[in-house]
Specification:
- This protein is α+β, with helices and mostly antiparallel strands and 345 residues long.
- It folds into 2 domains: 66 residues, no CATH class; 261 residues, Beta Barrel (Lipocalin).
- The protein is 16% helix and 59% strand.
- Strands 1, 2, 3, 4, 5, 6, 7, 8, 9, 10, 11, 12, 13 and 14 form a 14-stranded antiparallel beta sheet that branches.
- Helix 2 runs antiparallel to helix 3.
């Protein structure tokens, strides 16, 4: 108990001293400035004659030295990495995205009624990604990537909901299997900050094309009177989702060894613009039904990597998109894991 008490007292005294006289860096600067002035003053006494009075020129030089500010320490520049890097990798992603739009429409009524339609997809897939990076200076780096998936059979639905008179809610549409293929591109620019973080800005584009299986089951349900009607439709339906995003992000890196490091990323896309194009050639020949939604996305990533001529990287990430307008929604939840290998020079 006595030892702990002494340690507490010592810590309190140390804090009190620092608060009173400043940090060690402040003491060092003060000592350097005033110590040099003291040495100059002692030289002036030796040269000033028997009376010990400094000359006018020496006094002016001392005043100049005292008033000159101490230059701050230069900002540390991180060591430059490779000038060029090219890598390729494999990703496994779990994606769910949804569109919902509200607009007046009609179903077996002469007048328009309240209506919304919703499209929902499960876009789980394997991604093959190629990325290239170029360092234009020790603190400036550019990168770009391209990714694509194979075509898969997955779940998709397109349902319309009508609020007809007489409290009759009608839901009509298809829900079943779709054939989906996806692509994406992205570009980034990054630079370090004094805080130790690396900040970056970027742009990404993703395209998901889905073809509903034909023939497909069409369902119509009514609430008043309750009924369910199922038919087989031969109509074709294709949807194309296109998402443009403008990103800002920050990275914090920490070395685990001379070659291995771990990093954490936080990214935000306040400019997220999603375009849904629905093509129904039999029902609306020659027309595309296009709707736009806007929102923002938050994403995080943890990466473990090895530097060198043959870099290796493994990462896990997650993201979620939020909407600005309840009448025009685009929501996406994603979770992914990836591994990449490359060449650096």
């Amino acid at each position: 108990m006595l030892v702990r008490g002494c340690r507490s007292v010592n810590a309190a005294l140390l804090l009190a001293i620092v608060a009173a006289v400043g940090s060690p860096a402040d003491l060092y600067q003060s000592y350097t400035r005033h110590g040099a002035q003291a040495l100059l003053s002692s030289g002036q006494v030796a040269r000033g004659g028997a009376s010990g009075s400094p000359s006018i020129g020496d006094a002016s030089q001392a005043a100049t030295l005292d008033s000159q500010p101490v230059a701050p320490a230069p900002e540390a520049v991180p060591p430059a990495g490779p000038t060029f890097q090219l890598d390729g990798g494999f990703e496994r992603r779990l994606d769910r995205f949804l569109y919902r739009f509200e607009n007046p429409s009609t179903f077996s009524t002469p007048e328009m009624v309240e209506h919304f339609f919703q499209q929902r997809y499960e876009a789980d897939n394997h991604w093959f990604v190629v990325r290239a990076g170029y360092r234009s200076s020790p603190t400036r780096r550019w990168s770009a990537e391209v990714g694509l998936t194979p075509q898969i059979a997955t779940f998709g639905e397109d349902l319309d909901t009508f609020f007809n008179p007489g409290d009759n809610v009608i839901v009509a549409g298809t829900s079943g299997e779709v054939y989906m293929r996806s692509t994406r591109t992205a570009g980034w620019f990054e630079r370090p900050r004094r805080s130790g973080l690396i900040e970056r800005i970027g742009y990404s584009y993703r395209r998901d094309r889905s073809n509903f299986r034909t023939p497909e089951r069409k369902i119509v349900t009514m609430s008043n009177p309750p009924s369910v009607q199922e038919t087989i439709t031969l109509d074709h339906e294709t949807t194309i989702s296109q998402v443009h995003q403008v990103w800002v992000g920050w990275t914090k890196r920490r070395a685990l060894s001379p070659r291995w490091r771990i990093s954490g990323d936080v990214d935000a896309a306040p400019g997220t613009f999603a375009r849904l194009n629905t093509i129904l050639p039999e029902k609306y020949p020659g027309q595309n039904i296009v709707f736009w939604a806007s929102g923002f996305e938050l994403a995080g990533r943890v990466t473990i990597s090895r530097d060198g001529r043959w870099p290796i990287e493994a990462s896990a990430d997650l993201g979620r998109t939020f909407t600005y307008l309840p009448s025009a929604r685009f929501i996406r939840n994603s979770l992914g894991m990836s591994i990449r290998v490359g060449f650096a020079q």
